[in-house]
Design the sequence.
């Protein structure tokens, strides 16, 4: 594993009026790693992700992608770098079918005329490599899919573009047990395929099942990075709720898989 | 598929059934409904409405509304009438005049769309403002000028030109060939992939239906020379069908059309997918304006003039009702261009048939309203079936 993180955030600060959503946040993800981002409601998780996705511009701080500083001004910029975001809600168009959603905004076309056949073919293949087998027809409207299937489509869409970093904002929040398992398995597979994954979740069980490392945010500050194998849910809960002194001694900021 | 209950998509079936019922009903009750002359009349009366209704489809697909189209059509008619005016010092060739008028109407639509997309004023309000402004402008000009007569033959041809019999047959043959060609094209593009297997029975049935419809329409138009005017396929129908094919292509085969459906289905998802939502909104309102302009020219052509009574009757409401009866959802994201064509046909047939029965205008409105209510109720019911899973 390389030492250069795939994504590195340095001293990111973001305020909405008087609300300090993020202050001096440092964060990183490595290739092939599932990095969980946890924290209480309003801790700043979604805001941090939106800075990376180009929805918000940070007030100050640096974003480094593959070691180089980048400026991301919108979803197109993020996509060009290979960053894809799967939002918990509002990610799919219910009136469109699976293929149409997979290619939304990036339809294959010749002189603006849609090339349906290769899109359909490639959708089939992507779903197959991700072992998403429960969807009967890729030509059925997304409205007819179950919550887990919809989430699978959203994840599949994110990885179809040779993306390097996939960000999932609470991908299992609305799902039942079986469907949650489906999506978590999918998330693990992404990591195994060498992608960097940021997983935002309130469910520590999910986090401990999938993540390699865990970053805890509290009130807009990063309070620590933990290695999943050497920490306990209890520690994480304490970090989320009470907060431990920032950057705890003994847990260097880059404590991770190779240590 | 014609009928797909599972997705709550009734398709064009109910409206086709409705059309058949209406035609049979009038066929039995009205003496001069089932005549070739009346058929051509019906087409010439409905052509303008259909053009406006096409534009309405795209606006409704976005989940927006355009109340200004009736008077934007009036502006279009006014512009061609003024530009072709002999002895005005700025007399233009009719075709050029029409081009300018349609572009101007597209511009009007784009400005209204811009206010909606960039300022965020609801489309209902912006186009209601447009409704009043364009109405006022037309009033100001025509109160001073009186009726403007259109003499340019190209402009008057749009609604009134009649093709010779054999040209009618050739046009029927071309349209019959269109569908099989599109199927063939899809096959060629999908060659080498495992998808797009065609159900040849459906393809055959559709081709046959299209052939019967095309040649049947031309046969009726060509039939019977009752009055002095020669009967035949009216250019108005050809224009309506060309616009239908072109706009269906735009909606279903192009990235623009796909993005219209996406924005109407879920604007936030579209935005996050990198689609420029404001751009789509502006373009759709420009299209709506352009279609209104085309419709307005056709209406002016029908009476060879523009007068204070323009736009005729309930143009705006008929156009919106056509699209809605044709199954285009008011909530955005659902519907097809063909719905507007069928809806305009149904409304046109209803109003024409009731006219030949000498029914009062009051009853014509009441019946049209009843049909509209019924169609929307059916649509809402279909939506509820769709809501079974998800939203
Ligand atoms: N667009 C905005 N305008 C103003 N304040 C905002 C905006 N977005 C977020 N905030 C504020 O920033 C803070 C962080 O919000 P954020 O959505 O990032 O939290 P979160 O960690 O994602 O919470 P949750 O777990 O509830 O999703 C909150 O105090 C929130 O009110
Ligand atoms: Mg959040």
Sequence:
């Amino acid at each position: 594993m390389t030492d250069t993180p795939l994504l590195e955030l340095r001293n990111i600060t973001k305020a909405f009026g008087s609300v300090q959503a993020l202050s001096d946040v440092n964060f990183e993800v490595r290739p092939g790693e599932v990095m969980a981002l946890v924290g209480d409601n309003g801790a700043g998780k979604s805001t941090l992700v939106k800075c990376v996705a180009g929805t918000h511009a940070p007030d100050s701080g640096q974003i480094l992608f593959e070691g180089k500083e980048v400026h991301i001004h919108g979803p197109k910029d993020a996509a060009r770098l290979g960053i894809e975001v799967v939002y918990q809600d509002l990610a799919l168009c219910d009136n469109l079918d699976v293929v149409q959603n997979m290619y939304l905004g990036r339809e294959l076309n010749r002189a603006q005329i849609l090339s349906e056949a290769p899109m359909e073919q490639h959708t089939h293949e992507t779903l197959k490599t991700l072992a998403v087998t429960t969807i009967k027809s890729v030509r059925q409207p997304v409205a007819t899919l179950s919550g887990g299937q919809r989430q699978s489509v959203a994840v599949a869409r994110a990885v179809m573009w040779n993306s390097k970093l996939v960000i999932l904002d609470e991908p299992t929040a609305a799902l039942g047990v079986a469907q949650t398992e489906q999506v978590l398995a999918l998330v693990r597979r992404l990591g195994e395929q060498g992608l960097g994954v940021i997983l935002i979740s309130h469910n520590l069980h999910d986090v401990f099942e999938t993540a390699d490392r865990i970053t805890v945010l509290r009130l807009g500050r990063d309070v620590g990075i933990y290695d999943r194998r050497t920490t306990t849910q209890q520690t994480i809960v304490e970090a989320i709720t009470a907060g431990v002194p920032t950057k705890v001694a003994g847990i260097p900021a880059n404590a991770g898989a190779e240590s | 598929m014609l009928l797909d209950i599972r997705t709550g998509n009734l398709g064009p079936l109910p409206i086709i059934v409705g059309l058949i019922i209406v035609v049979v009903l009038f066929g039995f009750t009205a003496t001069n409904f089932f005549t070739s002359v009346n058929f051509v009349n019906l087409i010439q009366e409905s052509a303008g409405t259909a053009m406006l209704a096409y534009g309405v489809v795209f606006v409704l697909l976005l989940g927006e509304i355009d109340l200004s189209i009736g008077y934007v059509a009036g502006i279009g008619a006014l512009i061609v009438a003024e530009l072709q005016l002999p002895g005005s010092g700025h007399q233009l060739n009719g075709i050029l005049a029409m081009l300018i008028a349609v572009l101007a109407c597209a511009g009007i639509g784009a400005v209204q769309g811009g206010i909606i997309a960039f300022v965020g004023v609801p489309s209902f309000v912006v186009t209601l403002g447009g409704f009043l402004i364009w109405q006022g402008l037309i009033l100001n000009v025509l109160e001073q000028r009186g009726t403007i007569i259109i003499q340019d033959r190209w402009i008057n041809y749009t609604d009134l030109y009649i093709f010779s019999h054999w040209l009618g047959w050739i046009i029927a043959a071309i349209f019959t060939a269109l569908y099989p060609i599109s199927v063939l094209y899809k096959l060629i593009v999908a060659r080498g992939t495992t998808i797009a297997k065609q159900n040849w029975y459906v393809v055959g049935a559709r081709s046959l239906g299209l052939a019967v419809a095309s040649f049947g329409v031309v046969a009726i138009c060509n039939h019977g020379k009752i009055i002095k005017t020669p009967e035949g396929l009216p250019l108005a129908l050809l224009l309506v069908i060309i616009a239908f094919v072109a706009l269906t292509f735009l909606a279903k085969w192009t990235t623009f059309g796909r993005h219209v459906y996406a924005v109407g289905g879920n604007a936030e998802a579209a935005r996050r997918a990198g689609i420029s939502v404001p751009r789509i909104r502006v373009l759709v309102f420009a299209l709506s304006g352009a279609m209104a302009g085309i419709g307005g020219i056709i209406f002016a052509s029908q009476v060879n003039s523009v007068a204070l009574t323009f736009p005729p009757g309930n143009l705006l409401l008929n156009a919106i009702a056509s699209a809605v009866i044709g199954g285009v959802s008011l909530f955005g994201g659902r519907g097809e261009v063909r719905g507007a064509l069928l809806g305009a046909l149904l409304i046109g047939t209803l109003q024409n048939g009731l006219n030949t029965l000498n029914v009062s205008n009051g009853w014509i409105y009441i019946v049209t309203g009843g049909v509209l209510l019924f169609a929307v109720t059916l649509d809402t019911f279909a939506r509820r079936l769709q809501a079974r899973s998800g939203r």
Q: What stands out?
A: The helical segments of chain A are 45-53, 75-81, 98-102, 116-129, 147-159, 177-192, 204-210, 233-241. Residues A 16, 19, 21, 39, 41-47 surround adenosine-5'-triphosphate (ligand 1) (CB under 6 Å).
